[in-house]
Amino acid sequence: MNTPTKIAAVFQQRLTDIANDTEAALDRLLGPDSRTGERARPAHLMEAMRYSTLGGGKRFRPFLVVESAALFDVPRERAILVGAALECIHCYSLVHDDLPAMDNDDLRRGRPTAHKKFDEATAILSGDGLLTLAFDILSRPEVHPDAAVRIELVSSLAINAGLGGMVGGQMLDLAAEGRFGDGKPQPLKQNEIETLQAMKTGALLRYACIAGAMLGSADKTQRAALERYGAVLGEAFQIADDLLDVEGDAATVGKAIGKDAGMQKGTLVSLLGLDGAKQRLAARVTEAEESLAPFGERGEVLKAAARFVAERKA
Asked: Record's Gene Ontology CC terms (predicted)?
């Protein structure tokens, strides 16, 4: 019988292994040699793209892709490629979020942000390069032999990363900060905060889970279970992130903290208070665990991932 301690150890090992495999895939995908159809890969741009993508991060989104796909015995190399594509989207979003016109951050993962390490123009172009590379990767036959599956992966990522997902969520966040109109922060109701966070943070986490279902040709019940898991996990992740901004240590987190309050951002922590937010976080973790019931013991590692989200310190 698997004990919680044993499952937690298995989770940590798989998280590490998948991070290493993803790092190796990204290192290869971001290599100096031009791909068929490319004219050249400018060295300065490649340096910036690699700086913003390699050597950091827990690779939690690729982990979710790989572990969700593993429920259906999908070949690991396919899931790793999808995870690498998703990580390109995630890293591009961080590069752009850190820009002076957006969050104006100097540190990311304990290192200078891309625009500080290089310059703003290079940071913008490196983000653009990572964004488009993601769809290049997903279109490749190595991801799945069935073109219909690849099209679904591309279409779903575009939806979750774009206007109605991550990018739209960032715009809602900027609007709430008072970046437009009269320049005054706009108080958000709870449902508005939930919508913003489900788009800005939750959409890519949800995609990570349903991408595994797509790769594995999951049935309707299985797909719905993973979609629900991804949705509530996304909310839990954002609450935990907001709690870290209040209670975390900057050296451990690897970026500035206390910025949400300073910018008067609407979060569930500011709305519900610390205790209320922690209670909601615990409830979402329980809901994430319960959503995996259709997979029985095979879902134990993903359940551990939900607990990891709630307990993380960075």
From this structure: cytoplasm
